Amino acid sequence: MSYLLASALLFSLGVYGVLTRRTAILLFLSIELMLNAANLAFVTLAKAHGLAGQVAALFVIAVAAAEVAVGLGLIVAVFRHRESTAVDDLSQLRG
User: Residue 5 and residue 51: Cα distance in Å, rounded?
Assistant: First the structure.
């Protein structure tokens, strides 16, 4: 059960990072930390109860890889246009 505690701690750190950071790169890092915490919880529960947590963990890894590919592409495009990765500046893209 100490792995579940570590998973909860990592997830909490990720939530804190999402709520307090203002740059898109650090926001993505915090989201990745949350996804890895979910993976740790899936694998821990699968090991304890004999469930198919590894399959769920692989699915989360695939989603995280797609998120990084698309997200970093968007961040690079916005940085080339605005020369900033601040999330507050992204709200001005509408106009």
Answer: 19
pLDDT in tens, 14-50: 999 999 988 888 888 899 899 899 888 888 888 888 7
Q: Would you tell me how many other CB atoms lie within 10 Å of the CB of residue 36?
A: 18
Q: How many whole angstroms separate alpha carbon 38 and alpha carbon 61?
A: 10
What six digits make up the tokens of 92? 């001005």
Report the 3 state secondary structure along 34-67: HHHHHHHHHHHHHHHHCCCHHHHHHHHHHHHHHH
Please report where in the chains the tokens 């701690």 appear, as a residue: 9
CB 68 within 8 A of CB 90: no
The pair phi, psi for residue 80, each rounded to 5°, is -65, -35
* Rounded Cα distance, 77 and 33, in Å: 24
3-state secondary structure of 23: strand
